[in-house]
Amino acid sequence: MSSKLLVVDDDPEITLLLRELLELEGFLVETANNGIQALEKFDSTIDLILLDIMMPEMNGLKFLSQLRGKFTVPVIFLTAKDNEYDKVIGLELGADDYILKPFNDRELIARINALLRRAHWDNVANDEAEQPIKYTIDKLNVNRKQGSAFFDNKYIDLTGTEFQVLLTFLENSGKIITREKLSEFVLGKDLTPFARSIDVHVSRLRKKLPPRSDGLPWIKTLRSKGYLFVIDRNDDLLYE
Fold this sequence. Notes:
Layout: E1 4-8, H1 12-24, E2 28-32, H2 35-41, E3 48-52, H3 60-67, E4 75-79, H4 84-93, E5 97-100, H5 105-119, E6 134-137, E7 140-143, E8 148-151, E9 154-155, H6 160-171, E10 176-177, H7 179-187, H8 197-208, E11 219-222, E12 226-229, H9 233-238
Parallel strand pairs: 1-2, 1-3, 3-4, 4-5
Antiparallel strand pairs: 6-7, 7-8, 8-9, 10-12, 11-12
Helix pairs in contact: 2-3, 4-8, 6-7, 6-8
């Protein structure tokens, strides 16, 4: 079954170009010219959103802030501005990735497919037999198959990318995982020297995880090494 994408951009030429490109790749495509139209057209059948930042009436940032209160659908920002502030704000609001205009067609399709694979990971062939379906640490319970996370039986509202960051940490808990590896596993791309995407996703996850009952941190940042997801006090003391 073809994935359905929502393209939100106020430039009619870009909207037409994206529709033609995506339909040639087998996607179903809906379009909107601003955030208000996008909210009207969005429903649960949408699998991914391509979202411009600078638009009239309601820009991409405002649209995303309203969307993320209810839905975890993957979002890629399309922006003509090589502006670090816009990228970071977008990621903090819950965008999964961004790509600069003018974009390379193949890179865009690769980014879309990577996010769709992660969003539907439970339908993609993987080594389920070798990976636990459920993880429990302290009062945190994570279900790989359901794509859900609870702490003390209370649901933790994570975006798809944040859940993948958490899952990657759990799969490598007690081990140092570099920013480069985390970017490769979660975002499906190499980490460039000044990229902050993965750090923003980790920061958002940190803020959403409630304090542990044992007083330990969930995630430790190890300077020049990467991150460590803490299992117990031995991990915490070992990497002091």
